[in-house]
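Anyone opening a protein record will find just a pair of labelled lines. A complete record is shown below as an example:
=====
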Amino acid sequence: MKYLKLGLILMSILGIFGAHAEGNVFFTQSSTVGEVVSDPAFGDFGRLLFPVDRTVTEDMTLKEESSSSVYVWYNYIDASRTVSVVNELRERSLAGEQIFYSIYSDAEIAATLVICSLLRIGSLSAAIAATAACPAATASTRT
């Protein structure tokens, strides 16, 4: 969830400061979410450019994805800004700039994976016990 927040914050900051792709425009409004997610410039983090808790399919175009039906907490989303931000992030990444930052420790990530796995198999009591067993890993998620 923190990656999602970080991605959205980064996209918002770039939008506020008028980011635009000054180099080669790679993505367009007709590019798909899948094309962005799988672009090697974003590595394993491309999926975090889009909401992970909303229905965003890989075949959606950036224009379709840039709507208040996806971003229900916003009432005006400019698809050209989405494209601009994604192109800017791609350009920066290809230039060697770090654009994603892990904000969880390895222990927090491991604990979250265990808890999610237990929930996925329907073992709520085991997930609660696992959460209680790793208070350091879950303390930062309570704030």
Summary: Residues 51 and 116 are 18 Å apart (CA to CA).
